Each structure stands twice: as C-alpha cells, then as structure tokens.
Amino acid sequence: MNGLGALLRRDLSLAYRQRAELMQPLLFFILVITLFPLGVGPEPNTLKMIGPGVIWVAAILSSLLGLERLFRDDFQDGSLEQLILSGVPLAAAALVKVFVHWLTSILPLIIISPLLALFLHLTEPMYWALVFTLLIGTPILSLIGAIAVGLTVGLNRGGVLLALLLLPVFIPLLIFATSAVESASMQLQYSGQLAIIGAMFLFSLALAPFAIAYALRVSQT
C-alpha cells in the first residue's frame, strides 16, 4: 500500500508539472463543442438533438489525446521496467495510473460540461442524464484505453494505431450514453441505459487491470 500511495503521489505531481500536455484534452474538448454550432447552425432544436452525441464524441477523442502519454514517459525513462521489478502488484499499479489519468484528463471535462451544455441548448433533465453517463462511462474509456496503450507503448507513432484499436470498442458505450440523454429529453426513464453502462464499468474495473499488467509485461519483452 505504501508503494501504491507513493506511485499515486508521484503521478499526480508529474501530471501537474506537465501542464501544457494536461491542458490539451480540455482545450480540444472545448474547441470541438464551441465550434460545432457554427458548423451546423444555431437552431436550438437541431443542437438539442445532436448535442449529447457531440459531447460524447468530443469526450472520447479528448481522452485519446491524454491516453497516449499514460505509460509513455515511464517506458522511455525505464521507470516502467523498475515498477515491474519492484514487487508492487502490477495490476494495482496500473489501476492507480488509470485513476490518475481519469482524474487529471477526464474529470475536468465533466466539470466544465455544464457551461458547454448551454451552447447546445440542452434542457436540465438532459444535462443531468449527460453528467450521470459521463461519470459512469468515462472511467471505461481510461480502463479499456490503458490496455491498448500498454500494447502499443513501445511503438513509434502509436497514436494512430491507438485510435484505430479503441474507437470501434467505444461505440457501444456511445450508443447507450446518447440513448440515455435522448430518453431524458423525452421525459422517459433512462435507468436501464445507466445500468448497462454501470455493468460495463464494473466488468472493465474487474478485468482491465490484469489485462493492462499483461500488456505491459508483453511490451517489456
């Protein structure tokens, strides 16, 4: 536990030292959502209809920007190899690093989403459904994404391959998340969609750390 606590403090400290890279996903998220109404027009009903999908697609693409550096620096400076040899459970260490990624790269997107929802004319029920889906669903982006990052960490220009691997995997999450917000717009219950997203999250939380650990060991061989 002491080793995991030290890893958590180290990764948080490194993340906030690299503020330029830390801001990239947030700035991309803001730019996509604020520019989108200029492309499709300011008609409120149109924006309300496509708004949830726009926000979720922007969140997925923004998370990919932050995922590439999840293990990159540790692989390049040898810290990842030392972590594997340290005796700290690698699955638990991977979960800590994924949590730091979500905390620093994705949580700011959720915090700023109320302001951006105004640009897309989302109603209050739609906004709350969007927040719930983001809170439950975005950890899945980090957990599943970290598996692909672990497999591609040793490759040059792995960002394109990372996107090709992950975007099809995230389609079911995108479908259920936007369906929940659409149900909220029609004053319908969306607990079923949230339950499915929650089940996806629990399944990912149970299996992804071990898959990440295996992928990292493979990348080191």
Can you characterise this structure?
- It is found in: Cell inner membrane.
- The protein is mostly helical.
- The protein has one domain (2-220).
- It has helices spanning 2-17, 19-40, 44-67, 72-77, 79-85, 90-119, 124-152, 158-166, 171-185, 191-220.
- Helix 2 packs antiparallel against helix 3 and helix 7 runs antiparallel to helix 9.
- The longest helix has 30 residues, at 90-119.
Topology:
Blueprint: H1 2-17, H2 19-40, H3 44-67, H4 72-77, H5 79-85, H6 90-119, H7 124-152, H8 158-166, H9 171-185, H10 191-220
Helix pairs in contact: 1-6, 2-3, 2-6, 3-6, 3-7, 3-9, 6-7, 6-10, 7-8, 7-9, 7-10, 9-10
Question: What does this entry show, briefly?
Answer:
The chain is 85% helix and 0% strand.
Uncertain runs with pLDDT below 50, 5 residues or more?
A: none
How many distinct domains? 1
Counted by DSSP, the helix tally is 10
Strand content: under 5%
Structural classification: mainly alpha
* Number of distinct beta strands: 0
Helix content: over 70%
Largest sheet: none
Salient structural properties:
single chain; elongated; 85% helix; mainly alpha; 221 residues
